């Protein structure tokens, strides 16, 4: 893939805007809330990385939140630039009307007649494009935890193909009762803390997130060099213990970016802190990075933001490098493998080549490779 440049990015996480989030990570001063999560078999008071100001699960508030993060970047573009900018949204948010209809069929004594009032996630993209004069073309991608990472790769394809000058990619995830109860039912939620690649890890903590990334043909210090996505539908909730699917996606990402494993400065792992996923990921790292690699995980700072984590973790990682450091990994005091231990302290760094991994439900796995030029 011909490299595409990353010219701008904005973030809203549980820790605040981009500047506030980087400051919280740098000082390891992390705020976390709690949320009551209910399933048919249990009710738990779980840790949850929530926005400071609640965004309710209705179309008006969701649209307002996406609009606000988009406007931070769109406002810097002139009229002609906007016309040549496509919008892609990556998220795990479902069509609320369909979800509510299914829920009523399952839980209500008398089934509510379903009347289609479709307002899918792409309806938000269309409305934003119309409001701000972006290109008429929009796309929305829902591939679980890889949604906005795949959206970035799709955006790069459009630019490389000469279809668009710029592509604005937005990752979105807000609190969802349905999503939360699903993770709880699978016993994947920690009631304490996220401990990536730790022998005592006991699950993930969910989080809300919004992040916008602008891809362009014009030069910028950061570039998206390449990436790769695969999909293994044999098991929709996990991968092989040996991490073979992860090995495939990382090696093909390197090939697509036309670099070798020795060129990688550091790795941002997916690092969910779940028993199976961390084991698969670290086994894959042993194969791809035989001599070891500097790596870290961001989810202990912001939670697992599902569909938003592609753009959110990329923007946070890029901004951390811009601020001179690779973030350490919180709460890994008893590492699974000593040779493959995540950073325990921030590491000084202001440029290099980095691999960012995103592995998700549905068997979908994505790796992207980015580069920061020395300036």
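-> sequence recovered:
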């Amino acid at each position: 893939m011909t490299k595409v440049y990353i010219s701008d990015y904005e973030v809203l996480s549980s820790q605040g805007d981009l500047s506030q989030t980087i400051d919280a990570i740098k000082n390891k001063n992390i705020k976390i809330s709690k949320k009551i999560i209910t399933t048919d078999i249990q009710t738990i008071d779980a840790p949850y990385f929530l926005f400071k100001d609640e965004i309710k699960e209705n179309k008006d508030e969701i649209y307002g939140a996406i609009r606000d993060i988009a406007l931070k970047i769109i406002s810097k573009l002139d009229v002609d630039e906007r016309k040549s900018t496509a919008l892609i949204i990556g998220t795990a948010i479902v069509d609320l009307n369909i979800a509510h209809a299914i829920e009523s069929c399952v839980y209500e004594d008398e089934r509510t007649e379903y009347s289609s009032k479709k307002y899918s996630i792409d309806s938000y993209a269309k409305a934003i494009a119309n409001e701000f004069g972006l290109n008429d073309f929009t796309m929305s991608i829902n591939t679980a935890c890889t949604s906005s990472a795949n959206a970035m790769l799709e955006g790069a394809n459009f630019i490389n193909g000469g279809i668009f000058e710029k592509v604005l990619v937005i990752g979105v995830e807000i609190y969802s009762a349905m999503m939360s109860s699903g993770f709880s039912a699978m016993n994947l939620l920690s009631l304490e803390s996220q401990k990536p690649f730790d022998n005592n890890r006991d699950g993930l903590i969910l989080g809300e997130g919004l992040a916008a990334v602008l891809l362009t043909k014009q030069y910028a210090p950061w570039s998206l060099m390449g990436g790769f996505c695969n999909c293994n539908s044999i098991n929709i909730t996990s991968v092989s213990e040996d991490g073979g699917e992860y090995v495939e996606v990382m090696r093909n990402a390197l090939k697509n970016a036309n670099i070798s494993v020795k060129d990688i400065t550091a790795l941002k792992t997916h690092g969910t802190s779940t028993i199976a996923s961390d084991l698969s990921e670290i086994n894959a790292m042993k194969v791809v990075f035989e001599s070891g690699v500097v790596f870290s995980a961001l989810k202990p700072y912001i939670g697992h933001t599902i569909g938003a984590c592609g753009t959110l973790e990329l923007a946070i990682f890029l901004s951390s490098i811009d601020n001179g450091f690779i973030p350490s990994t919180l709460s890994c005091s008893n590492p699974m493998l000593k040779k493959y231990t995540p950073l325990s302290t921030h590491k000084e760094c202001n440029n290099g080549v980095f691999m960012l991994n995103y592995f998700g439900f549905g068997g979908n796995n994505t790796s992207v490779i980015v580069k920061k030029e020395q300036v």
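The radius of gyration is 20 Å.
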